[in-house]
Amino acid sequence: MWISRQIIKPEQQPAVQNAKVTMNAEGEIEAVYSGVERALTIYSPYGYTYSVPRGEELLIAKSDGSQSALGVEMHASGIAQGEILIQSKSGASIYLKKNGSVVINGLIINKRGEIENG
Description:
The protein is mainly β. Helix content is about 5%, strand content about 40%. Strand 5 and strand 6 form a beta hairpin.
């Protein structure tokens, strides 16, 4: 018996894996990794809510016997350290710049609250 358990060891899945979103129907997410997971719970910073589009990469982790998504792969090119850019799939954006200004869909509001262009 010991020999058979040594020869046929159960395949261990990594605790954290990348997954590709294959479905998002009314907020119910399905993702494919070494398996398929439906009705994923997605965690994000407090106050942030988002709906992940198909094709995006998620980071999946084991959580109390089920899988949970820790977040979506980030693409931070073009922003400086300390800046925050929030973008929707359609192109709407809010950009918090390190100089204190806020750019909302191209409209610049400086740190004194004045509109610089419009």
